[in-house]
Specification:
single chain; 224 residues; alpha/beta; 5-stranded mixed sheet; 11 helices; globular
Length: 224
């Protein structure tokens, strides 16, 4: 019997490493929340994972608390990164798993933090190799010339975001809803207002650059 493929959509929240430690650790951020949802091979959410992570070289300053809602007291009794990562990997199903996130920044953060804290995790390191960037898929399908935010992409696809932005589990759930749409619609169905705006972005100029220079030259000649 063929084993089912699973997808895991992950989102990290992070805090700023203390300035004096940045050069020593060679990293600027530390993970303070791991949120993830598990999808079956039809891209439906079937399970979730969520944990705060106690930082070792940073804390939830006023900016991070304002952005994420996470406070130092939320982190006080949380597992440290190594233990939280072990819990996450234990939660992953066996067999074929593909990791998904909005941009590759979370993959880079996990890799960098593991290296700087001397943590090895063969299962996760293997999953790094097939990691999927949902942001890249969205931008390619919509011919975006810049990296789109998750909020903009959700709005463009008429997906009502639930929960709070910059909460790891909520962002993972919302990314999963968007990922399902990206993977199941051969032609991505967009909000008509967004589609019209994209159409206007790509509307060709009605005159050439040569025509514009001619206008400028005529204007200059008249001024003389």
């Amino acid at each position: 019997m063929e084993q089912m493929k699973h997808y895991v959509v992950i989102d990290l929240e992070m805090s700023n490493v203390e300035r004096r430690m940045k050069k020593v650790l060679h990293m600027g951020m530390e993970t303070i929340q791991i949120g993830a949802v598990l999808l079956n091979d039809e891209f439906d959410i079937i399970d979730s994972f969520n944990t705060y992570v106690k930082p070792q070289y940073s804390h939830a300053d006023s900016f991070i608390t304002g952005l994420t809602g996470i406070k130092d007291e939320d982190l006080a009794d949380a597992p440290v990164f190594e233990d939280a990562l072990a819990e996450f990997v234990d939660w992953l199903p066996s067999g074929d798993v593909v990791m998904v996130s909005w941009s590759f920044s979370d993959r880079a953060q996990l890799s960098r933090e593991m290296e700087n804290k001397g943590i090895t995790c063969p299962r996760l390191e293997t999953l790094f190799e097939t990691w999927v960037d949902a942001q890249q898929i969205f931008d390619e399908k919509t011919d975006s010339y810049r990296a789109s935010s998750l909020t903009d992409a959700l709005n463009a696809c008429d997906i009502n975001a639930s929960g709070n932005a910059h909460n790891g589990l909520d962002d993972a759930r919302n990314t999963a809803l968007l990922f399902k749409k990206l993977m199941t619609e051969p032609v991505l169905q967009l909000n008509p207002y967004y589609a019209e705006a994209k159409k206007e972005e790509t509307t060709p100029l009605t005159c050439s650059l040569g025509d514009l220079f001619s206008i400028f030259n005529l204007a200059g000649a008249t001024a003389d």
